[in-house]
């Protein structure tokens, strides 16, 4: 379980970090409609913030700069995860959960899934029970198991249940850019299915003891299969800003690689040097005030 931040003895608080897919291969489609994937997932030092504390009932309040439109009732994935943990562990206690939203909605960086996974870990600590296992968490959503592994990077396969540890990654920085376009994941996958077959490609092993250049060289041989769907000007889910964001990132000094995360619409740029990442984020934000942009370390 990730260490919680210092707080009052009965209060637990933690960052729910952004989940970033540095690669994403669509490798198959099951008969039940679930897609099979291979994806290298890392976590960034930027995200939402959660606090939990004892209470008679289980309740959720949402605040922060991106709280608008986020439900506080049982439709919120955080409360669904809390209820599932409580039911499976036989917990009768309640908790007051506070969610401070900073990540853009529908951005392909696992905001809701990371929030739910962080809530599971904090509540498990508060209630003195084990967090949900991969098998127990998967019904909540395909990204919940990998987010429970945060901040450790993982190679995610299957529908999200097959998680493999990776060699230690070198120190790296990310610039995350979102154009303010929320992408419904099912629609993106439907557009992919209509235009492309699953790929036969698989990941090469991540190199051991890699420095930033070695890792970047490996990464350049991989991709996100869904990027081309959002870049298709004739497609149903075309987001023209994706090409604009990637072009902006490619013009920045020190860029190692860039692509889209998950089903979009957030894109990432990878850097070895903090100062170059921060300079790129500042430059892009200055030219596009309508975009959300953040520089953060890979955790």
Structural write-up:
The chain has 299 residues and is an alpha+beta fold. It has two domains: 154 residues, Ribosomal Protein S5, domain 2; 125 residues, Alpha-Beta Plaits, CATH 3.30.70. It is 29% helix and 27% strand. It is built from nine helices and eleven strands. The strands form two sheets. Strands 1, 2, 3, 4, 5, 6 and 7 form a seven-stranded mixed β-sheet that branches. A four-stranded antiparallel β-sheet has the order 9-10-8-11, sandwiched between helices. Strand 4, helix 1 and strand 5 form a beta-alpha-beta unit. Helix 1 runs parallel beside helix 2. 42% of the residues are buried.
Précis, in short:
The protein is of the alpha+beta class. The chain contains 9 helices and 11 strands.
Question: Which CATH architecture of the largest domain would you pick?
Answer: 2-Layer Sandwich
Question: What does the largest sheet look like?
Answer: 7 strands, mixed
Low-pLDDT sequence parts: 1-7
Radius of gyration: 19 Å
Helix-strand pattern: EEEEHEHHHEEEHHHHEEHE
What structural class do you assign from the helix and strand content? alpha+beta
User: What is the average per-residue confidence, as pLDDT, rounded to a whole number?
Assistant: 94
Shape field: globular
Q: How many beta-strand segments?
A: 11
């Amino acid at each position: 379980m990730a260490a919680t931040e210092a707080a009052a003895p009965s209060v637990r608080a933690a960052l729910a970090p952004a989940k970033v897919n540095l690669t994403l291969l669509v490798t198959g489609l099951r008969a039940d409609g679930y897609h099979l994937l291979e994806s290298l997932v890392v976590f960034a030092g930027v995200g939402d913030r959660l606090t939990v504390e004892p209470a008679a009932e289980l309740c959720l309040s949402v605040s922060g700069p991106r709280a608008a439109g986020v439900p506080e009732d049982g439709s919120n994935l955080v409360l669904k995860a809390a209820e599932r943990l409580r039911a499976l562990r036989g917990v009768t206690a309640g908790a007051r959960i506070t969610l401070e939203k900073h990540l853009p909605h529908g951005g392909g960086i696992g905001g809701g899934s990371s929030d739910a996974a962080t809530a599971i870990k904090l509540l498990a600590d508060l209630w003195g029970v084990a967090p949900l296992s991969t098998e127990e968490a998967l019904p909540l959503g395909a990204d919940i198991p990998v987010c429970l592994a945060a901040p450790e990077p993982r190679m995610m396969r299957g529908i999200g249940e097959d998680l493999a540890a990776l060699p230690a990654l070198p120190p790296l920085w990310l610039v995350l850019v979102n154009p303010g376009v929320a992408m419904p994941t099912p629609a993106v996958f439907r557009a992919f299915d209509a235009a492309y077959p699953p790929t036969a490609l698989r990941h090469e092993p991540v190199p051991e003891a890699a420095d930033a250049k070695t890792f970047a060289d490996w990464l350049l041989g991989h991709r996100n299969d869904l990027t081309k769907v959002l870049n298709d000007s004739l497609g149903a889910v075309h987001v023209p800003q994706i090409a604009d964001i990637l072009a902006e990132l490619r013009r920045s000094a020190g860029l190692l690689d860039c692509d889209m995360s998950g089903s979009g619409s957030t894109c990432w740029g990878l850097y070895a040097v903090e100062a170059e990442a921060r300079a790129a984020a500042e430059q892009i934000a200055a030219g596009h005030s309508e975009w959300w942009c953040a520089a953060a370390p890979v955790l």
